[in-house]
Amino acid sequence: MVQLLRLIVIIAIVWALLQLARRGLERLRQAQAKSSRKRSRRGKPAIGDMVQCAFCGTHIPQADAIRAGDRYYCQQKHLQADRQPKD
Ligand SMILES: [Zn+2]
Fold this sequence. Notes:
- By secondary structure, the protein is an alpha+beta fold.
- The protein is built from 2 helices and 4 strands.
- It folds into 2 domains: 1-43; 50-83, no CATH class.
């Protein structure tokens, strides 16, 4: 009889541990999904987002470009040079 009780207690403990492990894994998976979603939102734009410098024609990622209205520049110097009247 004591052995049967001990078996029941062991089964109950194992069951409780399995439940805890399952819940822990679920939480871990949710946290990973959340962080990967955040990462993709924060990530740099795709390589497709390239723009051309309006002054020298160099192609640069839009994230690194200097924007002036609807024009993009690879560096501040080119923005200023393009704004200066040409003679
Ligand atoms: Zn340029």
